[in-house]
Amino acid sequence: MKNIQKLTIAVLLAAGLVAVACGKKADAPTAEAPAAIDGAEVYTTYACNTCHGDKGLGDGAAGASLNPKPRNFTDATWKNGTDLATVVSTIKNGIEGSGMAPYAGVIPDAEIEAVAKYVLKLGGK
Ligand code: HEC
User: Fold this and answer.
1) Peptide bond into 68 cis (omega under 30)
2) Ligand 1 centre distance from Cα of residue 70 (Å)
């Protein structure tokens, strides 16, 4: 009986710690982030440049053998469109059947928005 009680307490403590950790994570973007995020930094931190190229011309080494090719952001038309909300959703959901992976849950939302603005800028949009 004692052991079971100890185990129960340990499990509850662990769950509490996880809850606290998650709570902190969720608070961080709204508390500090928005103004400070540099889309260019997100672009290289998450290796977008390895496929899309440093200048967004779709000429990164890791994208050379992909079919379809990574988007050249200066292309006049993009598969899913170039308004900010669409680009954010493309980055979150990826493009099925291509090398463009879904980044939802990988990159925090505020950083996705920053990198979306950055790729639009690289494309002159
Ligand atoms: C492994 C290579 C690869 C990486 C890394 C990669 N992409 Fe892509 N991306 C692609 C490919 C390939 C496409 C084109 C898919 C298609 O045309 O169907 C694409 C398409 C896109 C598009 C869609 C444009 C459109 O046509 O609607 C955007 C925006 C984009 N990528 C942004 C990013 C961002 C931001 C990152 C980094 C967080 C990133 N990509 C990382 C390969 C990559």
Assistant:
1) yes
2) 5
Could you read off the pLDDT of 20-72 as tens digits, one per residue? 555 555 555 555 555 689 999 999 999 999 999 999 999 999 999 999 999 99
Which residue type sits at 97?
A: G
**Does the Cβ of 113 fall within 6 Å of ligand 1?**
no
Neighbouring CB atoms inside 10 A of 18's CB total 10
- For ligand 1, the distance from its centroid to the CA atom of residue 31, given in whole angstroms, is 29
Q: What is the pLDDT of residue 43?
A: 98
The single-letter code of the amino acid at 78 is: W
